[in-house]
Amino acid sequence: MAGPYPCNNVDLMSFVPRSTFGGDLNDCWGWTDPNNAKEYALVGLTTGTAFVDITDPVNPVLVGSLPTHTFNSTWRDIKVYNGHAFIVSEASNHGMQVFDLSRLDTVSNPPVTFTANAHNASFGRAHNIVINEDMGMAYVVGANQCGGGLWMLNISDPVNPILAGCHDLDGYIHDAQCVIYRGPDVAYQGQRICFNCHSGADKLSIVDVTDPTDPQHISIGTWSPANIGHQGWLSED
């Protein structure tokens, strides 16, 4: 048993209740500080984003929180690139918050309330954000721009995101994985490829975004019976 839960090869080290955060939880991402190996959980809330030090998994510490940019929302998504958290939400006019995660190590009396290091307002609401860490590119999906498709931002300078392109040929994208392709198809090796799952449609679209100003449609896969294309991930091979 992991606490009250039946388990196999898993144990419950600790539990941080909802009341600690002051809002409902809706997403979680992780980051390890390369300077000191501290591990953090980045937690999406209705009210913003919380940062929890889980280096000691038995004694997690709420370091602080970053309030929502505009309004509360039942959905928020977080990804990390180059020591910065990139946060989107379905809250109206939220855009993308950028937060320098190195600030977490400077907190001496937690929890504290943070402000964002930067903000991108090229879109308002969005359902999800995808990052290709190898290329410093962010792909906002399910946004109120680009028909909910790939809204592409160059984040090589994390606090100065630059709009790079849009792919709107396949409709609303719920989630995606964007990579430098190293798979078995030699025609696309080394290219920047996005694998996109479509909510409200039974399909996976595959797009070459090597040139974000001229994305190239590769293929669409479908399945039956029709259901939501919620999310997907590439295997190691």
Q: Topology, please?
A:
Blueprint: H1 18-21, E1 25-32, E2 39-45, E3 48-53, E4 61-67, E5 76-81, E6 84-89, E7 96-100, E8 112-113, E9 118-120, E10 128-132, E11 137-141, E12 150-154, E13 162-167, E14 175-180, E15 192-198, E16 203-208, E17 216-222
Parallel strand pairs: 4-8
Antiparallel strand pairs: 1-2, 2-3, 3-4, 5-6, 6-7, 7-9, 10-11, 11-12, 12-13, 14-15, 15-16, 16-17
Alpha-carbon distance between the two ends: 34 Å
Q: How many E strands? A: 17
Mean pLDDT equals 95
The SSE order reads: HEEEEEEEEEEEEEEEEE
Main beta-sheet annotation: 5 strands, mixed
Q: Radius of gyration in whole Å, from Cα? A: 19 Å
What proportion of the residues is helical, as a percent range?
A: under 10%
Number of helices: 1
Tell me the fraction of residues in β-strands, as a range.
35-45%
Structural class, by secondary structure, is mainly beta
Q: Tell me, what's the shape?
A: globular
User: Uncertain spans, ≥5 residues at pLDDT below 50?
Assistant: none
Looking across the biggest beta sheet, what order are the strands in? 1-2-3-4-8
